[in-house]
Write a structure and sequence with these properties.
Layout (H helix, E strand, L loop, with lengths): L1 H28 L4 H31 L2
Helix pairs in contact: 1-2
Length: about 70
């Protein structure tokens, strides 16, 4: 069970790092319009919420397996 939690943590850390790198990079460094940046930022925030929700559900699922 301990190894499964470790893999779960590692997976979500990698996913969050990828979303941060590829999502916030265009928001901070893009030369597009401010509307484009705001839309990208909203999409990135929605992705963060979805990922955190899935992460919490996954941890509860693993915890309840014991």
């Amino acid at each position: 069970m301990r190894h499964l939690r470790l893999l779960l943590h590692a997976f979500f850390i990698i996913v969050l790092a990828l979303v941060t790198f590829f999502g916030l990079g265009p928001v901070l460094l893009a030369d597009g319009s401010s509307t484009e940046r705001i839309i990208t930022a909203i999409i990135v925030l929605i992705l963060y919420v979805i990922i955190v929700f899935c992460y919490r559900k996954s941890l509860q699922s693993v915890k309840n397996r014991k």
